[in-house]
Specification:
Elements: E1 10-11, H1 14-22, E2 26-27, E3 33-35, E4 44-50, E5 53-54, E6 67-74, E7 77-78, E8 83-87, E9 91-92, E10 95-96, E11 101-109, E12 121-123, E13 132-134, H2 141-149, H3 151-168, E14 174-175, E15 180-192, E16 197-199, E17 203-210, E18 221-222, E19 227-234, E20 237-238, E21 243-249, E22 254-256, E23 260-266, E24 271-273, E25 276-278, E26 281-282, E27 287-288, E28 294-296, E29 298-300, E30 304-305, E31 310-312, E32 324-326, E33 331-332, E34 337-339, E35 343-344, E36 349-351, E37 353-354, E38 367-370, E39 376-379, H4 387-398, H5 420-438, E40 447-449, E41 452-454, H6 456-477, E42 494-497, E43 500-503, H7 504-512, H8 516-528, H9 530-541, H10 544-548, H11 553-582
Parallel strand pairs: 2-4, 3-5, 4-6, 6-8, 6-9, 7-10, 8-11, 9-11, 10-14, 11-15, 15-16, 15-17, 16-18, 17-19, 18-20, 19-21, 20-22, 21-23, 22-24, 23-25, 23-26, 24-27, 25-28, 26-29, 27-30, 29-32, 30-33, 31-34, 32-35, 33-36, 34-37, 36-38
Antiparallel strand pairs: 1-3, 12-13, 38-39, 40-41, 42-43
Helix pairs in contact: 2-3, 5-6, 6-11, 7-8
C-alpha cells in the first residue's frame, strides 16, 4: 500500500476542470470540487459531482486498483487511493477514508443527523416494548441484561447517559480505512468501520458495522442477500440471506442462512441459522441451527435449540407480554414447546410440550418432560451424568472467535458449569427435595410442586447425584487445602448477568454507580476477582454437613467422574453398534 500523501485538499484549477470534462465528468459547481496535488485525474472518468466533493490522492503506482468511474458523488469527502466504480444511483453525504473499495453498489447515502443505528431500541422479552435494549457501540451482554431486567433503572439512570454520549459524539457518517463494499443494493445511513467487508448485501439501512479488531483481520462481515434495518453489528457477522430488524449482533456472533431476527440481541459467539427470533435476548454461546425453530420472548445463554423448538408469548388477551428465562446451558429437544412465562433451571434439557408455565429454576441440571396435556414432569440432576456437559464446558472457550482477533472483549463470560450460582442451587435443591420427600404422593404416584410433577425415587436419586457434584466442585476448588475461614454469617447470593457470574452485592453496586464507565469498572473488577470471591463464598456458604465430609470429597469427585465416563462409554458402544448396523 502506498504511503498516504499529506497534501491538503485544494480547488481544481481551470486546466484540471478541462481535463475532467474531457474524461466525461461534470459538476454542479466546479468551484466546489477539491483535489490534492497527488490526485491523478486520469483515474477519474464518467463521474458526476454535486455539491462539495473532496478527492484524495490517486495513483497508478498504488498497490491496489484505485480511481473513480461511472459514479455520481455528492457532498462527500474521499480519502487517498479509493476505488469507486459502477455506482447505480449516487454516493451522498459520505466520508470515505483511505484505501476504501466500492464497486457495483446501487447507492450509498447519508442523511444529515442520521444516527446510524445508535439509539435503536429492541423490544426484547416483552414484545410490547416495556423492556427495551438500546444500542450503542460498546454495548455488552451485561449492560443489555440490566436494561432488560431492570427497565426502570435503565430509563432513570442509563438512558440519560446514553443521550448525553450521543449528543457529545454524534454518529460518524464514514466508511473506514480499507473497507470493501461490493455487489450490493441500497446502503443508507450505515456507518462502516475500518476493514469491514460488505459483499452482496441486499439492503442496509440505519445501522453501524463496528470492527474492534485490527483492520487487516476484521471480524465484522456482511454477506450475500442480507437485509438489515435499524441494526448494529459489533465484531459480528450477518450473511447468506439473514434478515435483521431492530437487531444487535455482538462480538463473534453469526446470523446466516436465511435467519430472521427482529427486536432481538445476540452476544458473544452466538450462532443462528435458518430459523427465526423475535424479542429474543441471546446471551453468549446461544445456538440455533434449524429452519423450523422459533425463539421468542426469552432470555438465554449457552443454549442449544433443537429443531422445531417453539414458545408462545401471546395468549390473545393482553398482547405478546409474556416472556421467560432459560437459564444458562439449557437444551431443547426437537419440537419442544414452552408456554411463557416460564423459567427453566440451568443446564436442563426440555422435552415435549409445557403449557403450565413451569418454574424449574430450583432444580438445576434436570430433565423436563412435557406430556400430551402440557404438564411438566421434572427429573432432577440427570444432566449431571451427561458426558455432553463436560464436552460443552471444554469446547466453549476454544470456540471463542474473539480470541483469534485479539480484540477488546465487551462481553465478560464465565464458562464453568459448576460455579457458585449452580452449586448454591444444588445445595438449596437438596434441602427442598428432602422436604418434598416427606409429602405424600398423589394417587398417580407423583409429588406436585408449583404445578410440576416429581417422583419420590427420582428425588432420592437426585440427592445422591447432587451430592457427588458438590464433592466434585469442592475437590476441584479446595482439594486437600484447608478450608478458608468464613467471613460472614450471611453469604452473598450469586446471579448470572449475561454470562458473567457476580454477587448480588456487586449487582447493587453496579445499579448504584453514578456513570456507565463506573458501572463497567465494577463489572471488570468483579471479573478479575472472581476466583477470590468464589473461595470467599465457599467459606461463607458451605454448610457444616459438607465441612464434616471433607474426607469424602475425593471419593465423591471420583464417583462423579466415573458416571460421566460410563455415560461416554455407553454412547461410544452404541455408536459402534450403529456403525456395524450401517456397514456396507
Amino acid at each position: 500500500m502506498m504511503k498516504m500523501q499529506k497534501s491538503e485538499y485544494r480547488p481544481v484549477t481551470d486546466e484540471e476542470r478541462r481535463r475532467l470534462e474531457k474524461n466525461r465528468c461534470s459538476a454542479s459547481d466546479w468551484h466546489s470540487l477539491f483535489v490534492k496535488d497527488s490526485t491523478d485525474l486520469s483515474l477519474i472518468r464518467d463521474v458526476d459531482f454535486e455539491g462539495r466533493v473532496c478527492i484524495g490522492a490517486l495513483s497508478t503506482e498504488a498497490s491496489h486498483p484505485n480511481g473513480i468511474s461511472r459514479a455520481r458523488i455528492a457532498d462527500s469527502t474521499l480519502g487517498d487511493y479509493v476505488l469507486i466504480r459502477n455506482i447505480g444511483r449516487e454516493i451522498r453525504g459520505a466520508e470515505i477514508r483511505d484505501d476504501v473499495q466500492i464497486e457495483n453498489v446501487a447507492a450509498i447515502i447519508f442523511e444529515p443527523e442520521a444516527p446510524c443505528g445508535v439509539g435503536v431500541m429492541a423490544s426484547v422479552l416483552d414484545e410490547t416494548g416495556s423492556r427495551p435494549v438500546r444500542f450503542y457501540p460498546d454495548l455488552s451482554s451485561q449492560t443489555a441484561s440490566l436494561m432488560a431486567l431492570k427497565p426502570r433503572w435503565a430509563e432513570d439512570s442509563l438512558f440519560p447517559q446514553l443521550d448525553d454520549l450521543a449528543e457529545q459524539s454524534p454518529a460518524s457518517h464514514s466508511i473506514g480505512n480499507g473497507s470493501i463494499i461490493r455487489d450490493s443494493g441500497l446502503i443508507s445511513n450505515v456507518h462502516i468501520d475500518a476493514g469491514v467487508k460488505i459483499e452482496g448485501a441486499s439492503r442496509l439501512s440505519n445501522g453501524s458495522i463496528i470492527n474492534n479488531a485490527d483492520s487487516s483481520r476484521p471480524l465484522s462481515y456482511v454477506g450475500a442477500g442480507v437485509d438489515a434495518k435499524n441494526f448494529m453489528i459489533v465484531d459480528g457477522v450477518a450473511d447468506s440471506g439473514a434478515i435483521l430488524r431492530n437487531t444487535f449482533v455482538g462480538q463473534g456472533a453469526i446470523l446466516e442462512k436465511g435467519f430472521t431476527a427482529h427486536d432481538s440481541v445476540f452476544f458473544a459467539n452466538s450462532s443462528m441459522e435458518n430459523g427465526e427470533a423475535c424479542a429474543l435476548f441471546a446471551g453468549p454461546y446461544s445456538v440455533s441451527m434449524h429452519k423450523s425453530t422459533l425463539l421468542i420472548g426469552c432470555m438465554l445463554s449457552f443454549m442449544n435449540a433443537g429443531s422445531g423448538t417453539n414458545q408462545s408469548n401471546h395468549m390473545y388477551k393482553l398482547g405478546p407480554v409474556h416472556w421467560g428465562i432459560l437459564e444458562r446451558g439449557v437444551k431443547t429437544s426437537s419440537f419442544s414447546y414452552i408456554m411463557l412465562g416460564a423459567k427453566v433451571g440451568p443446564f436442563s434439557l426440555v422435552m415435549g410440550s409445557h403449557k403450565n408455565h413451569p418454574d424449574s429454576s430450583e432444580f438445576p441440571f434436570s430433565y423436563l418432560f412435557g406430556d400430551d396435556k402440557g404438564a411438566t414432569t421434572v427429573v432432577p440432576a440427570m444432566m449431571l451424568r451427561s458426558c455432553g456437559l463436560l464436552r460443552d464446558e471444554k469446547k466453549w472457550p476454544t470456540r471463542d472467535r474473539r480470541l483469534k482477533r485479539k480484540l477488546r472483549m465487551l462481553d465478560r463470560v464465565h464458562f464453568a458449569v459448576l460455579n457458585p450460582m449452580t452449586v448454591a442451587r444444588i445445595l438449596d435443591a437438596i434441602d427442598l427435595m428432602r422436604e418434598l420427600q416427606i409429602k405424600p404422593a398423589d394417587d398417580d404416584g407423583f409429588i406436585r410442586y408449583k404445578g410440576m410433577k416429581l417422583r419420590r425415587a427420582h428425588l432420592q436419586r437426585a440427592e445422591i447425584i447432587y451430592g457427588e457434584a458438590i464433592c466434585k466442585y469442592l475437590y476441584e476448588r479446595i482439594g486437600e487445602n484447608d478450608l478458608p475461614e468464613a467471613t460472614s454469617d450471611t453469604p452473598d447470593e450469586w446471579v448470572d448477568l449475561g454470562g458473567q457470574l457476580i454477587t448480588r452485592s456487586t449487582l447493587r453496586s453496579v445499579l448504584e454507580a453514578d456513570t456507565l464507565s463506573e458501572a463497567d469498572a465494577i463489572l471488570d473488577k468483579a471479573y478479575e476477582t472472581f476466583e477470590a470471591d468464589e473461595l470467599r463464598w465457599i467459606a461463607d456458604r458451605l454448610p457444616d454437613e459438607w465441612r464434616r465430609r471433607k474426607a469424602d470429597w475425593s471419593l465423591g469427585a471420583e464417583n462423579f467422574d466415573r458416571h460421566i465416563e460410563e455415560d461416554r462409554t455407553m454412547y461410544r458402544d452404541g455408536l459402534s453398534a450403529e456403525h456395524s448396523m450401517l456397514a456396507l
